[in-house]
Amino acid sequence: xxxxxxxxxxxxxxxxxxxxxxxxxxxxxxxxxxxxxxxxxxxxxxxxxxxxxxxxxxxxxxxxxxxxxxxxxxxxxxxxxxxxxxxxxxxxxxxxxxxxxxxxxxxxxxxxxxxxxxxxxxxxxxxxxxxxxxxxxxxxxxxxxxxxxxxxxxxxxxxxxxxxxxxxxxxxxxxxxxxxxxxxxxxxxxxxxxxxxxxxxxxxxxxxxxxxxxxxxxxxxxxxxxxxxxxxxxxxxxxxxxxxxxxxxxxxxxxxxxxxxxxxxxxxxxxxxxxxxxxxxxxxxxxxxxxxxxxxxxxxxxxxxxxxxxxxxxxxxxxxxxxxxxxxxxxxxxxxxxxxxxxxxxxxxxxxxxxxxxx
Length: 359
Ligand code: SF4
Ligand code: SF4
Prior knowledge:
Blueprint: E1 15-16, H1 38-44, H2 59-65, H3 72-80, H4 83-87, H5 121-135, E2 139-144, E3 162-169, H6 172-175, H7 181-207, E4 212-215, H8 222-228, E5 233-234, E6 240-241, E7 249-256, E8 266-267, H9 270-277, H10 279-283, H11 315-325, H12 331-334, H13 337-343, H14 350-355
Antiparallel strand pairs: 1-8, 2-3, 3-7, 4-7, 5-6
One iron/sulfur cluster (SF4) binds next to helix 11 and helix 12.
């Protein structure tokens, strides 16, 4: 049973503000090198315990143990969920791809080469948001691209001034089974949906004569961009907390030279709520989330980016727990009261998951 130790339902009435609600120390802030992400370090950091360890290393043994939520069926779903993300070439492309033999590039006139004249960036932002919703984004916001959030080892030309940041809601029932495999399936479906949405919105931008860099977790840090674009605030769990779904979202973004009007950042009291709540830290099996009352500038592992005032998450421990668990985890999402407020549940069994939404 997960109880909300604050005894309070978090408030989600937003207040639009002029500056993003994070505190940075510019003397410490550095652009993050993507080689320091845990996933890159799995392949490239031989000094780390997680080097060359994949979290399917214990999958066969785990299946044989017969635990609920860790069956062959559960893992089959979790691995199926990533297929569009992993296999669809158009998802994370920086350029137009030519998937068809007959296209505007090969027959007739190419009406997409000239730039559509944008005399009202606000209206263009409306068009972009409507298109993003059509393609399946649950939330969309726009911000100026703050270069501090672009990975140090990625070159994004100066003309890409704007970021379209999109959030994709993850399946509430799936997440409520974490750390079991259906939660990982909800995550993987989120990533696969991202690929579809990015391809559609990116192509919409290109058909207007502008450029689009379609990104998932690559190229730039999604969470501060999501904050800049007014999608939410940073939580103790290191994730973007949205008023609508809490942290139960995946994030993706398109960097573009299309003229757009930025949204304002928002505030709805997350930092103050997190100071007392601590549920994510209490339930994290890896002990990866800080129990400190106050956020700080102290990093806790090499995969943290210094310079922001926050509760730094030990993502090394998190990843090593995934290896033990044989699949990734979303417990810090499922227990968060901001998730429970929208999902209506914090915890269900894999059996309940498989029997839900089935006539
Ligand atoms: S994903 Fe799981 S292991 Fe990682 S920080 Fe969240 S609760 Fe902890
Ligand atoms: S991020 Fe953690 S501390 Fe903050 S509200 Fe969610 S569960 Fe509570």
